Amino acid sequence: MSIDTPSRPSDATTTGAPATVVRPSTRPVGAPRRRNPKVWGPPIGVLALIIGFWYLLSMVVLAPDRRFLLPPPHQVVTDGLLNGPVIRDISRSLGLTALVAVTGLAVAIVIGIAWGVGMSQARWIELSLFPYAVVLQCIPILALVPLIGFWFGYDFTARMIVCVMIALFPMVSNTLFGLQSVDVSQRELFRLQHASRWTTLTKLQFPAALPAIFAGLRISAGLAVVGAIVGDFFFRRGTPGLGSLMSVYQSRLQAAELFTAIIVAALFGVVVFWLFGVLRGLAVGGWYDTSGS
User: Fold this and answer.
1) Assigned domain for 217 exists
2) Which residues of 137-157 are buried (b: 16+ CB within 10 A; e: fewer)?
3) pLDDT single digits (tens) 149-160
4) In a domain, 151, yes or no
5) Stretch (H or E) spanning 211
6) Which residue has the higher pLDDT, 145 or 53?
């Protein structure tokens, strides 16, 4: 015979305080959060300060006869962004620069991940190869640009090589860091199950390394854009890219057009950075969330 005992009242009931009802979140796992003014307000405020400081330098600090060196923002908009021929030239050059950047980034991703995976498999491989990754990062690319032009010409291939050299190191270092950051207990569990090296890599190390790999991807994506523009800037032969167009504007003292090209290049880099952030959210956002909310 069972005796039904009344359940113990909660502390909120005994003290007279209203009970707190915890409702489960209705947001799907991995779904993007709504942006509120606390998120986009500060960047807009900083942008307003930058534009105000820009006007101060152009309209107050610089003399009228030297104002062509730093045209005010409204002149950049009218002479550059709203100028049809200028925008068409910049769009054509941006297309080639984007092709170089995407191709170089793809090559850097393949080489960087393979390099990092190889070093993660044995300590002696890491000791043998990682110093050369650091050397590659420290090489002054601008000093190698003439040699790259001599060896590979001055068109697409040479610019892609410059792009790869600039964007490679973050992929190597982040891949290696992610693969080596696996929890020791999980690694021991795979070892106790006599898992092969390939199984451990594909089922444990690589999934755990995805957040670090995507962080490297976002860094390398921005550097790939920089590398493509640097290659365009110095390889002035062949099909002109955005860097070549900047060089032309600089030589002609077309400051408004030059600032327009710089703004377009920066926006392109931001878009590429944001795109890989979205891909990271789709790939690992459901189980790896650093926002804390």
Assistant:
1) yes
2) eeeebeeebeebbeebebbbe
3) 788 877 788 888
4) yes
5) helix 206-234
6) 53
